[in-house]
Amino acid sequence: MHALPQDHIGTRIARLRRERHLTQKALSELANIACSTLSKVEQGVIPASPHVVAACARALRVEVATIQGQPYADELRADQLDVLIRPIREALDVYDLGADPDIRARGPEELHREAEQLCADVRAGSIKSAASRVAGLIEEGTTAAHTAGTREGWLTLASFYRTAYDVAAKLGYPDLAQLSLARLDWAAQRGSDAVLGGMHHYLRALTYLREGKYHTGARLVRLGLSTLEQAEAGRERRAVTGQLHLGAAVLAGRAHDADQAHVHLSEAEQIAAETGEAMKVHWLAFGPTNVSVHRVSVLAELDQYGESVEAAEATVIPKGWPNSRISHHYAEVARSMLWTSNLEGSFENLLRARRYAPQQAKYHPTVRETYAGLEAAHRRLPDSFLSYGSWLGPALAH
Asked: Taking Cα atoms as reference points, which of 242, 234, 245, 231 lies closest to residue 271?
């Protein structure tokens, strides 16, 4: 029989609730969730869904990351990832200082290739590789952009900022992710790119999704769609438009607005039929496959876990689809299968999530909460289950 980890989301919610002298009933009323659900989450009997985590965070007036325990400091230190964060912060700070006389920047074509390679690394799940190089490239790109003052230079710098956002978001540093997006917007405006402006609003909406601020996220989606109307018509604009609708669908799903969620899914599906698989358009992986995996996520956000599993079974992942997206998809499937009491299937999908993008999966809140939920089920699972917990880190090791 497996022991429940001592520091999981439920224990953090209980600790924060007691610090504020709230009963379970009082917190459940403030968060607008069932008291029985809160009780089971605190005990670790059921995993906390993102909706419950966000509702409790709002009610307790803390960040979602505080309840999730992010960033996972011990694990980041063990993987030597924590030392890569400060250089990124420092690189983001020099954006308005002009060209650095001590930096000899390479030509625009070479820097553009570097920017594309960073995006490819993140999509392949190689977070450490991207994190170790992005700070230096931001500094070099900053000097190049200020020196040349060209549209191409500013957009390459914006791409470096986008990778900084990806790294920060995946490792659990929401403040750094928001700062990276502010810099991306600053560079995109200098590059006069409406499509990139629309994508900035999409990525910013995702930060509000993670924080449980769905209304603000939906407003940003609308602003993004409006910004895209200023862009030149074509496949690029349509793909980013479709991705905004997918983001809006997840926002609506997590807010438990089923009608709006399905409206946005339908819009994205129609656009994907036009664009086909547009995986490398701004590295968003938009297309019919992304619509399918978002449907799995949306159904789970709506607590329709059986339907989510059915949608997953009907989803075919094409060859060459980004490992980071595949890993995220399997983490979502694992969560849905846990809720349908398919423990073996859930764990198999956690293993798939790790296989496709181990660095990403290790720091994915859904992976960690699903693992804790499997332990709480007190069922017989294979020996490899315990080694998975050891891999996730000290908080989940035995």
From this structure: 242
Number of domains the chain is built from: 2
Domain CATH number, residue 259 = 1.25.40
| Residue 8: strand, helix, or coil | coil
Q: Which amino acid, one-letter code, is at 377?
A: A
**Enclosing domain of residue 263:** 193-307
Which residue, 11, 70, 365, 56, is CA-closest to 212? 56
Beta bridge partners of 278: 286
Say which residues have a Cβ less than 8 Å from residue 94's Cβ, sequence separation at least 6.
100, 139, 142
Q: What pLDDT is recorded for position 4?
A: 40
Domain ends where: 248, 279, 307?
307
250, 240, 183, 244: which is closest to 212 by C-alpha? 250
Asked, for residue 237, whether it belongs to a domain, the answer is yes
Is residue 188 assigned to a domain?
Answer: no
Domain end marker among 52, 69, 86: 69
For the chain of 398 residues, list the mean pLDDT of each consecutive stretch of 10.
58 95 96 94 88 94 92 91 96 97 97 97 96 98 97 97 97 96 96 94 95 95 96 96 98 96 98 96 96 98 97 96 97 96 95 97 94 78 79 69
Tokens of 191: 């590059």
Q: What pTM does this model have?
A: 0.91
Q: What is the C-alpha to C-alpha distance for residues 182 and 207, in angstroms, rounded to an integer? A: 12
Residue 22 belongs to some domain of the structure: yes
- Alpha-carbon distance values, 152 to 33, 141, 319, 339 (Å): 49, 11, 32, 48
Query: Domain for residue 270, yes or no?
Result: yes
Is residue 286 classed as helix, strand or coil in its secondary structure?
A: strand
b or e along 117-132 (b: 16 or more beta carbons within 10 Å of the residue's beta carbon)? ebbebbbbbbbbebbb
